[in-house]
Write a structure and sequence with these properties.
Largest sheet: 4 strands, antiparallel
Oligomer: single chain
Structural class: alpha+beta
Number of helices: 2
Number of strands: 4
Radius of gyration: 13 Å
Shape: globular
Order of helices and strands: HEEHEE
Distance between the termini: 28 Å
Helix content: 25-40%
Strand content: over 45%
Length: 77
């Protein structure tokens, strides 16, 4: 359930950001310090808005191992 809410929130951010202008923004998800996946948020977003999408380290549910609690960090550049 929590995984679904994370996905929905990322999609909501993408929808809000889609109306901006500039270069693409790539967000990378890390679990316990290891790269899990990357997502191109938008072709039209400025760097300031892109960096604001980053999320500090926090405890969360793993996308790789269902049910496992890991440290999650999202870095956008």
């Amino acid at each position: 359930m929590r995984k679904i809410s994370i996905i929905v929130s990322v999609l909501a951010i993408v929808a809000v950001v889609a109306s901006s202008c500039s270069k693409s923004c790539i967000c990378t998800r890390y679990e316990d310090g290891k790269k899990v996946n990357s997502l191109t948020v938008s072709e039209d977003i400025d760097r300031k808005e892109c960096k604001q999408l980053s999320q500090a380290k926090r405890r969360g549910i793993s996308m790789v191992t269902l049910g496992k609690e890991v440290t999650v960090e999202i870095k956008c550049r």
